[in-house]
Amino acid sequence: MLRRIVQLFIIIAGGTIGFLYLPLLFQIIGFTKGTWIDQPFVAPYIGLILGAIILYLLSFWFVDYIVSFVQYLEKALLGAPLINLLFGGIGLTIGLLIAYLIYQPIYELQILVVSQTVPLFTMGLFGYLGF
Q1: Which of 79, 104, 123 is the last residue of a domain?
Q2: Quick one: 21 and 66 in the same domain?
Q3: Domain check: are 5 and 67 in the same one?
Q4: Do 49 and 1 share a structural domain?
Q5: What is the pLDDT, as a whole number, of residue 116?
Q6: Residue 11 and residue 52 in contact, taking contact as beta carbons nearer than 8 Å
Q7: CA dist list (Å): 37 to 28, 58, 77
Q8: Model pTM above 0.90
Q9: What residues contact residue 86 under an 8 Å CB cut-off, 6+ apart?
Q10: Are 30 and 86 in a shared domain?
Q11: Contacts of 54 (CB under 8 A, 6+ apart)
Q12: Which residues contact 51 (CB under 8 A, 6 or more apart)?
């Protein structure tokens, strides 16, 4: 059952990616010039179908890895004390809130490298320290 649920999420992700990005790829390649796919309301749905089919076929290859990882996480969470999980989650939330408050002034600096990379590291650091 878990395998089918993971496949369903993979298919939905493939359809979403196809809906958003395959029409642009069609235009870049020139695939849609002079065809019925050139219509603005047709290309996203063709991309949706193609993306869902492609990731559905790929899901047979990597769904077992995802299911085994989820089962490993489930066993690890069931073995952990509830108090540690509760206070770890609260600490993680507080750490991420503090990192977000630090993120806002750094983003306003508009320095290309600093305003894009430093918030990522502060989120990771404060999230880790909070947990």
Answers
A1: 79
A2: yes
A3: yes
A4: yes
A5: 77
A6: yes
A7: 14, 25, 48
A8: no
A9: none
A10: no
A11: 14, 18
A12: 14, 15, 16, 17, 18, 19, 21, 22
Q: Any idea of the CA torsion for 9, 11, 17, 22, to the nearest 10 degrees? A: 180
pLDDT at 46: 85
Closest C-alpha among 10, 98, 105 to residue 54? 10
pLDDT at 38 (0 to 100) = 64
Tens-digit pLDDT string for the chain (131 aa):
889 999 999 999 999 998 888 888 877 887 666 666 666 677 788 889 999 999 999 999 989 999 999 999 889 888 888 898 899 899 989 988 998 898 888 888 877 777 778 888 888 888 888 77
Distance CA 63, CA 102 (A): 38
Q: Are residues 89 and 129 located together in one domain of the fold?
A: yes
4 with 44, same domain: the answer is yes
Q: Which domain holds residue 131?
A: 81-131
Residues 95 and 60 in one domain: no
